[in-house]
Design goal:
mainly beta; 2 helices; 10 strands
Length: 206
């Protein structure tokens, strides 16, 4: 959850040591992991997708990574992500998926690798713009919409059903724990309720 006072995301949960996207609907079989305790200031796992600049439905490469409390995405050892199937002088779209927020994809393709920061807190960088994001309490930045508990790209009654099945769970890595406080409670439902009926752009829907 975003803390306006700290200008950072906060969490109090135990992250799985191995990337959690080896289940439906992601079915990503990568081996990304960390040993021991979660890296300092890590908030959650995310799935990063690089897609063809000619067809944003075509996934070229995927990689699981961690998002840290300042919003940056990196490997568990804090190093920059590296993709190995990219061609020089070609452009690519970038998508971000999580376990319980509406996924997003970049508005335009970009050259990779590059030194430009792809900032998804800037709505102009996201396909669909402000309709795909939620305004943070600082009034100037955006964040992913919470509540897509089944990660299908639509926040609907199906997500509520998953929430009710996990409601009351504590000290577990649950999809319905969208505020990352290690408890599935009415606080998570309230975040879901604020975003219900939101529909992700077609490239990121399953």
């Amino acid at each position: 959850m975003y803390d306006n006072t700290l200008n950072a995301m906060t969490a109090s949960h135990v992250l799985p040591n191995n990337q959690p996207f080896n289940i439906a609907p992601y079915n990503y079989m990568g081996s990304e992991n960390f040993s021991g305790l979660a890296p300092l200031n890590a908030i959650d796992w995310v799935l990063v997708e690089v897609r063809s600049g000619l067809d944003n439905m075509l996934v070229i490469e995927q990689q699981a990574a961690l998002v840290f409390n300042d919003g940056t995405v990196a490997n568990p050892d804090s190093s920059a992500l590296r993709f190995y199937n990219l061609m020089p002088n070609e452009q690519y779209y970038v998508a971000i998926k999580t376990r319980n927020h509406l996924a997003v994809i970049s508005q335009n393709p970009l050259n990779l690798p590059n030194n430009m920061v792809l900032d998804f807190s800037d709505a102009t960088m996201v396909l669909g713009g402000v309709n795909q994001l939620t305004m943070l309490s600082n009034g100037s930045s955006y964040a992913l919409k919470a509540g897509d508990f089944n990660s299908d790209g639509i926040i609907s009654v199906a997500d509520f059903n998953l929430y009710t099945g996990q409601s009351g769970n504590i000290n577990q890595y649950n999809h319905a724990d969208c505020n990352a406080d290690n408890t599935v409670s009415v606080a998570d439902f309230n975040l879901y309720r604020n975003n219900v009926s939101s529909i992700g752009m077609s490239p990121i829907r399953y």
